[in-house]
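Late entry, written up from scratch paper. The run itself happened at the end of the previous shift, but nothing got recorded in the book at the time, so transcribing now.
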Amino acid sequence: MTRILLVEDDETIVRTLKDFLCAEGFAVDSTDGQKKALEMLEKSDYDIALLDVSLGEGNGFSLCSAIKKSRQLPVIFLTASGDEFSVVTGLDLGADDYIAKPFRPRELVSRINSVLRRCGKSQKLFEMGNIRADLDKGVVYKNGQDLYLSALEYRLLLAFINSEGRLLTRSRLLEEIWDVAGDFVNDNTLTVYIKRLRDKIEDNPAEPKLIVTVRGMGYKLGK
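Output as recorded:
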């Protein structure tokens, strides 16, 4: 599981981001100051750090500099909208990306995954039964044969992989389809693509073992 250190002094933002990122399958620790962040980095291994520029103690710039001097940890800055100085300064200090507030949580997840891939920290292979997904190439195989998933089918499968066996509601999965389709999608669309994905990855789509229905609630990967 990807571990994130969130350094932010706005309690509302911290609470919202932690809830969302944990629901996305990340493990998140948070603090509001530079000193405590450095102590946490010494005690635990993290895969990426999200840093606000203004902190309760210290600041994001000096924290980023300290991080980059001592370890190869990717950093994304959370900056005020239109604050060009913060963006340039952060990148000059070695930050791997930035995102301006206010931002959509799903956009942040996309930035996190992109940075992790660039830094070689993302999960590259997923295997379950006779299914193998190369997440770096975006290709899925069954018994060694390419399944040729569509963009929507692949995005749905990726949502299940990232959930690590947790329940995904239909509304949550609809958000995944919307991001790829870019146009109107509805509940019937989800039903169609769940069926198409099952037809490709399941040995017996009528009795699915990989994408399991949790009646009245949604779906999850495996039993």
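DSSP finds eight helices and twelve strands in the chain.
(Scratch paper discarded after transcription.)
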